[in-house]
Amino acid sequence: MLLEVRHVTQYHYAQQVRESVMELWMQPQKSATQRLLSFELELDPPSQLFSYADSFGNAVYHFDVPHPHDRLEIVARSAVETQAPPPLPEALDIGEWDRLRSDFVRGECFDFLRPHGYARRTAALDAFAEAHQLDELRHLDPLSAARQLSSIVYGAFDYEAGVTEADSPIDLALAEGRGVCQDFAHIMIAICRDWGMPARYVSGYLFTDRAQKQDRSDPDATHAWVEVFLPSLRWVGLDPTNNIPAGERHVQVAVGRDYNDVPPSRGVFKGEAESQLAVGVSVRRARAAIAEPEFMRMSKPAFVAGAQRRRSSLAGLAEQQRHQQQQ
Asked: What is the C-alpha separation between 57 and 60, in angstroms, rounded?
């Protein structure tokens, strides 16, 4: 499936701030089932972009706006070709639990076995587990148990934006019986880790057919789901928000221990102003194949005709660096 993603983030400040420093987790990953065809970042006010790979292998971009400004706009555009992952077996043998306890798994998945941040066991989570008899799932094989857990989380909560915030603990969603994909992912991750099953938080996007209304997640927002590690299958993606396995409609951007490891954007500014955040996401089928190989495009003009609006992009930075190397 060929998909185009447009992710717009706007920060508005009540008065001018002196400087902003930002980090971005917005570039889709490249994997066996996901090919990154193009990626571009545009910033207003313009700024030079830098990048690095974090400890989980995610692409992170960062920049500094060192002069006064009262707004900041970040536009990320991606083109991705996704494929459905290989079909999963109906079940695994019960010995998979023993393989999960091996030194190999404990060493390779150390970060995804421990409680961390929002994905941790609480008294409210224990009550939820008891009410839904989650301990009984451990009599199944790990793959079947994870599938059943995803289904239980899906059925136990209503999807409703505005009930929780990005920094809300899981206890709020547990108490309200409502939340968003981030909350459902954290709840499932905390339970899996308590079982001794490595689980990680996946941030990205979901292509939704609005006409069919088959998904309850917001089509105009980023998405999150869970990957569990099973020695016989490696990482397996499950989406408890929509009660489906992660497939070709899911565009993976970054993985971490919880949301705080991979927010789409994070930063600080110097000043006393109140700030407001607005985000818009569009994921649609591409109309035609993307011609550019990989994601290095030609740089754009410094000024857009008519608007006289200066922008900087990842492609422009790459072009500039290439010229510098040739001098």
From this structure: 9
